[in-house]
Design goal:
With about 55 residues, the protein is α+β, with helices and mostly antiparallel strands. The chain has 1 helix and 4 strands; from the N terminus they run ββαββ.
């Protein structure tokens, strides 16, 4: 697992206080973690455990 230091625009804090990573961060990371991230640029669907084309 890569440890990429967060930069401006990589995440925001939602109303519940959680850090939400943006598409920008996911693209810098370079792979899908299959956690069903809100801003996943890879098209992963956690419900079907598959990637949308």
């Amino acid at each position: 697992m890569l440890n990429i230091p967060p930069e401006e625009g990589d995440f925001y804090t939602n109303g519940q206080g959680y850090r939400v990573f943006t598409e920008q961060y996911h693209l810098k990371r370079g792979y899908c973690c299959k956690s069903g991230c809100k801003h996943c640029p890879y098209g992963y669907d956690k419900k079907t455990d598959s990637f949308k084309k």
